[in-house]
Amino acid sequence: MPSTAPAAPVPQGQHEPRTDPEALTSNPDPSQNAPTDVDYTPHPESSLKVSPERDLIVKKITNLYSGSASEEDMLVYAEKAVYDDPWSFCDTRYKIAGQWYGIPKIMASSKTLATEIVLSNDTTLAWKQTQEYTPRLLHTSKKVNSLVTCTLDEEGKVVYHKDQWNQKDYSHEGLGKVMKTLNGDYLTGVTKPSKNL
After folding, report:
1. Rounded distance, CA 124 to CA 126, Å?
2. Cβ within 8 Å of residue 151, ≥6 positions away
3. Residue 147 β-bridge partners
4. Rounded to the nearest 5 degrees, what angle is found at the Cα of 111, between the Cα atoms of 59 and 98?
5. Could you report how far apart the first and last alpha carbons of the chain are, in Å?
C-alpha cells in the first residue's frame, strides 16, 4: 500500500525547472528520435543566439563537465544552488563542487563535444550536450547525450541545475532519492573541494 505521508520538501523546490524534454528536443523527422521521442544529440548549427552572459554560463558549466575543477567556474552557482542528475542530488555550491572535483580523479578525460542551446528566457537556460567520458581504469570512451536545464536568479547565478539523460523527470522520492542525496552529501569528503565555496 503506498505511503500517505507527505514527501519531504525539496530544497530550492520552487526553482526546479519542469520543462518538457520532448517539446524542447524532438526532431521534426521522427526517425531521428530515440524511442522516447527525445533527441538529445546537439545540433550546434541550430543553437539559439544568446547574450554573452548566457554564453559564459554555458562555458563555465561545460568547463566543469570537462574537469576544470575551478573555483572561478564554480562561482556560476549561487551558494544555495541545487544540482540534480541521475546519480546525485546536491543542495549547496560546496556539495556541487564535490561532484565536479571528482571528475579529474576518476576520469582520464572528459570532453564536451557539442552543445545546442534550446531555451533561453528570463529565468531558464537549457541546452543539449554531448559529453565524452574516458574512465581512468577502463580507458574506453563513452559518449553521453543529455539535456541540461538551469534556473537562474536575478543576478544570473544558477540556482538549480538539472541534467537529464532521458525523457523522465526526477521524482525526489524513495530509495533512489536517498542514494542520490547520500552521494551528494558525502562525496565532498573524498574529492575535498575548496572550503571557500
Report:
1. 7
2. 15, 16, 17, 123, 124, 158, 159, 160
3. 128, 164
4. 75
5. 43
Statement: the pTM of the whole predicted model exceeds 0.70: yes
DSSP-derived secondary structure for 8-74: PPPTTGGG-----HHHHH--SSGGGS-TTS---S--GGGPPP--HHHHHHHHHHHHHHTT---HHHH
Helix, strand, coil percentages in the chain from 3-state DSSP, rounded to 5 = 30, 25, 40
Q: Who's near 35: CB < 8 A, 6+ residues apart?
A: none
Strands 89-90, 107-120: pairing kind: unpaired
Q: How far apart are CA 167 and CA 146, in angstroms?
A: 10
**Strand, coil or helix: what is 146?**
strand
Q: 108 and 142 in contact (C-beta within 8 Å)?
A: no
| C-beta separation of 90 from 77 below 8 A | no
C-beta atoms surrounding 72 within 10 Å: 9
User: Grid coordinates standing for 115?
Assistant: 552543445
Range name among 63-72, 114-123, 162-171, 176-185 with the lowest pLDDT average: 176-185
CB 128 within 8 A of CB 42: yes
The grid cell for 51 is 547574450
Instruction: Please give the distance of CA 144 from its chain centroid, rounded to a whole number.
Output: 12
Give residue-wise pLDDT tens across range 104-143.
998 999 999 999 999 999 999 999 999 999 999 888 999 9
